[in-house]
What does this fold into?
Amino acid sequence: MSEVLVVIDHADGEVKKPTYELLTIAKRLGEPSAVFFGSPEQGDAVAEKVKKYGAAKVYVVDDAPIKGFLVAPKAEALQQLAEKSSPAAILLPSTFENKEVAARLAIKIGSGLITDAVDVAEGGVTTQSVFAGNFTVQAKVTTGTPIITVKPNSAAPEESEGAGTVEAFAATISDAAKGAQIVATQPRQSTGRPELTEAAIVVSGGRGTGGNFEPVEGFADSIGAAVGASRAAVDSGWMPHAFQVGQTGKTVSPQLYVANGISGAIQHRAGMQTSKTIVAVNKDPEAPIFELVDFGVVGDLHTVLPAATEKVKERKG
Amino acid sequence: MNIVVCVKYVPDATADRKFEDDNTVDRVGVDGLLSELDEYAVEQALQFREKREGEEITVTVLTVGPEKAVDAVRKALQMGADSGVHVVDDAIAGSDYLGTSLVLAKAIEKIKADAGVDLVLCGMASTDASGSVVPAMLAERLGLPQVTLASVVESQGDQVRIKRDNEGSTEVIGATLPIVLSVTDQSGEARYPSFKGIMAAKKKPLETWSLTNLGLDADQVGLSVAYTQVEDTEARPPRTAGEIVTDEDGSGAGALVDFLASKKFI
It folds into this structure.
């Protein structure tokens, strides 16, 4: 069976959930080989984690000569790995960075690229959600090695023991790939809440918060949700851009999305319309967001949310 | 210094966007416009020119698209760009990322051969396909560094520094021109064309190129040689209308929590 390369999504060796989703998808296409860009010292620990989800091989690519530069070195490393392993497909978690890595790789190896898949079936047919979630598109790569970036929450991770054989891979990085240098990097402080794109529940706030996100955050914490924001709230400086849900922010597809004080402009809908259940709280009964909801409350989020938070706490006892 | 801004003519997101029978995006039957996210790239090019007073900087706007796509170039000229190039050829229709980036790269190389190109500017994504991959593909094809998703852009001499939000961090990226640069909607509000700008745009040079001008053959681009194939497109069924309650004397919170509990979220 052919190898399927799966790029591991991790933060300093902490493997993130989309990796397990990708490994699960990879098993439909061939034998998963996980690719770890990171410190070789963390290779064994990472392999232990990914083999539980079927990784037969784990390529450890020392990222010391890679991590100081944007995108191009990773694409070179993957090109070399693809030449060595002749994979049936290459899957990457759909982050902005990985999409660009995939883009350069596609040109390098003359292969088709599909971005932001929400499912990949046997045979490599992908499903994408486009035009603000209004259309579903089935597509496949017809030339070269399929390169597919896959969004979080696209599959339920399925455990199955793989061999998890660790193999160090030495990539050769050209000077030309080192043209865009990361001069400084400042990690964002963790909020202690779930990651926005991976969360099962997202509670978000918009213009209607008037800049006070406490009711939104309090309610989010009571039900274990991630916190998001509309572009209006971000543009007003109330929340950092990293929390923005929508066309130019994050696209989320949680089990439950609770929009508070968000009117529901097309740009916002593009980022949340595929959520399984949608709930809204808004003072304006005419807000377009109510066209999308499974349940809506016409009311002031500043009174509804704190009261709801109390009721959730009572129920949980 | 010469800046090329790549822009896309896209179906209006507030209109009824749809697909053709061959599963390509309907780019003719739906009202189109300059992609909102590319306006930020035009704006940054103009700011680049304004901030570097005393230097001779020209801004060329480039688009690939059907006849009507020239509107996107015209809008950018009205905003203040100096000249425009519209690549139009029936054979290009249905191109995927690889085909589109090939045509753009050939056009940039042609501009470069005539006048030189120091900076290629792009928006962060198109508002139709939302792929965010064409800037990286252009960088790969042109053999240039890519500095992407900038929210702040600064430059001095041939040095460019940007700030950007990455997944878990804020980064500062540095590079030496020539580069491909993409900017986000955080980079600065795009200006509206002034009346003067609209009048001036009518006299600005606007060239129309075909594949022949770029040294490309019809069988190198378009739907038939795309590296990906769309097998089916389907409108998502409209969401069924949900229950809406009006909060009176605190009833809204109870109803909300009851609903969430009924769906096992609590």
